Amino acid sequence: MLSVNIQKKLDIFDLNIKFDVESGLTALFGPSGSGKSVTLKCIAGIMKPDTGWITLGDKTYYDSAKKINLPPQKRKVGFVFQNYALFPHLTVAQNIAFGITHLPKQEKQEVISNLIKKMNLTGLENKKTGHLSGGQQQRVALARTMATQPQILLLDEPFSALDSTVRIKLRGQLMELLAENPIPAILVTHDLNEAYSLSKKMVVIEGGKCLQQGHKDEIIYRPQNTKVAEFTRATNIFYGTLSSENNKVSLTTEKFSLTLKAENLPKDAVKLQVMIRPHLIRILPLTACLPNSNVFLVEIVKEIRHIDSYTLFLKQKKSPFDDYDFTAKVSAQVYQDLGLDQQKDVYCYLPPEHLTLISC
User: Fold this and answer.
1) How far apart, in whole angstroms, are the C-alpha atoms of residue 229 and residue 359?
2) Is the same domain home to 28 and 144?
3) What is the pLDDT of residues 122-159, one digit of tens each?
4) Residue 155 C-beta-side C-alpha neighbours within 13 Å
């Protein structure tokens, strides 16, 4: 396990972050300038924290109290940069071989050949990296990093400069490499889809501080505060007053009332926020048999068409307010089956089990 607990004073903010990383990929997620890359550089030894510690298992990379600060070359850290950081005057094979200093010649060649095959670089071994495409260069960078047999892998937005097709392929190859080499890996990204699809665990940071860490589903479906909810694109966030009557718990907002599940409600809470992800809101036709609560007659006032889905902006019928009340997401098939291209009046249902409490 990698344990990070460091502080560093910077011009833009004070980095003060603590998290643990086990085997598998952890996404370090947050807006630009939040301290993600600085954190990786501190782990790698490229930057020195002011105080704290960084340990991997029983090995200490940095400890201010014990005056330990291992140089980068002694940390066994693999670092894949956004701009590849290859040697353009060397060939693909020479780039991959560069960090292999611990193996006999024959074993070294076997490692190079194996990685060239795994990363789909066969036929490019003798080509200089300056003549490769962006996707090919990043595959070389990954192969070169894994050739050193690192004990931890750091990836600083390695796919951001690539087109979507190449990015998808490289993500798959990365996951195959990590499956064969079960080491801790940290991926820095501000792409939420990338963070969620690749990671097992997420660490959300902003302004140099950790806002929440845990399993990716905890982050997405049970954010601990409004900032995490907003950073992870939670659009339906409702603020209201809590009340209880006849074993029924309700949240009353300015526009409507919602029934909540009674479990896990904070004690003595009066003001609360709840959220629901757009894809968890159900759209029902006017002829449907309706649930007993959290059902609203709405009009689709705006829609955004995606490749295989639609985002719907819903406003309650006869509402005196100008803006919409809910944002829902439905598949293209559901959109077609409900005839939403013709019928703009529907019911929307917010299942109580999908309403999540978040701190104000």
Assistant:
1) 10
2) yes
3) 999 999 998 899 899 999 999 999 998 899 999 999 98
4) 33
Is the same domain home to 242 and 196? no
Q: Are 260 and 352 in contact (CB under 8 A)?
A: yes
CA–CA separation, 201 vs 187, rounded Å?
10
H or E element at residue 93: helix 92-97
- H or E stretch at 220: helix 216-221
For 259-314, the pLDDT digits (tens) are: 998 776 666 667 889 999 999 999 999 999 999 999 999 999 999 999 999 999 99
Residues in the chain: 360
For range 55-84, the mean pLDDT: 93
- β-strand partners of 9: 14
Average pLDDT, the chain: 92
CA dihedral (259, 262, 266, 268) in degrees, to 10, reads 80
CATH number of the domain that residue 344 is part of:
2.40.50
**Which single residue is written with the structure tokens 């490749």?**
307
Tell me the CA distances in angstroms from 332 to 10, 59, 289, 347, one per residue in order: 47, 52, 22, 18
pTM above 0.85? yes
| Separation of alpha carbons 121 and 92, rounded Å | 8
Residue 165 confidence (pLDDT): 87
The answer to whether 348 touches 283, Cβ cutoff 8 Å, is yes
